[in-house]
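pasting for ref. prot 1 ->
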Amino acid sequence: MAMQLFIGGACAGKRDAVAARFPGAVWYRLTLSQRLAECQQALVADTPLVITGVFEWLEAALANAENDPLREQWQADMTQLSQRADELNAALIIIATEVGRGIVPMQPEQRRLRDLNGWFVQDATARGDQVCYVRHGLVVALK
């Protein structure tokens, strides 16, 4: 199956859009200290898996690693998770929050968090078969 990314601002309607498209999906919220690959435990054959909580998960990772090793880790995990989802014929859906259109924060850690979020979304976009932007409840397919 395919990996898909739904991105949009806070309260833009991402969850509703995903719930409408994948009514039988299993929903999984990332815990703050886990690796992305650990989401495999929630995969069920022939059942979509929706992953949420990416922004908070990245925020918790700020203190744990430098940018490059952190990014390499989630890229490897994304590959592993996608492969396992394919083996189980389970669509993989990631919901991410768009934060790049607002005011640039003054605090270095908040700027770094926005960088990490942007890189994560770029990596998910590169791997994903479909990317949708959600704004005001409207879904626009970007890829």
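and prot 2 ->
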Amino acid sequence: MSDGGAASEDLVNDEAVALYGDILRLTDSIGGRSERIIREASGLGGSEFEVLLRLVRHPEGRSTSARLAEDLSFTSGGLTRLIARMEQAGLLIRHPHPDDRRAALLEPTSQGRQRLQQALRAHVPQINQDLLGPLTPVERLILRELVTKVLLNSARGPVAGRGTASSAAPEPP
């Protein structure tokens, strides 16, 4: 039985397992603070913020719910309920899709855009401080390149619409 315990201990202490745990801790720490700041500044929940952010990033500022579900890793049912709540709250509007009668294009309303801007004005300084503040400009570039490399090797890929790693790098102080 000791062999099974030793093998299990090796897996428990595996480099990838430990790194993944640290990434989850970092995401939980920064994400929890981000959600509180976004809600206080704009009244938006984290999912509402992400939907509005993804919509304004798309060409022409609109997208289908299927594309949003893919971008956000939501189930279609979960996203349908969220979109209905956001539409009811006046944050987004549906338009007929010009090429697919079964689909609709979703677009933020002026109120949705205004609330997103309120959220971003509070979120950007916080996320810069929490995520990038401890890093030098070179470390920021390396972090961006490493995250992009891992995402390019994943099913999800990096955030669409974002520039290359070198264009995302901050200017030196």
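Helices lie at 2-12, 15-42, 46-57, 65-72, 76-88, 110-132, 137-152, 165-168.
Residues 162-173 have pLDDT under 50 and may be disordered.
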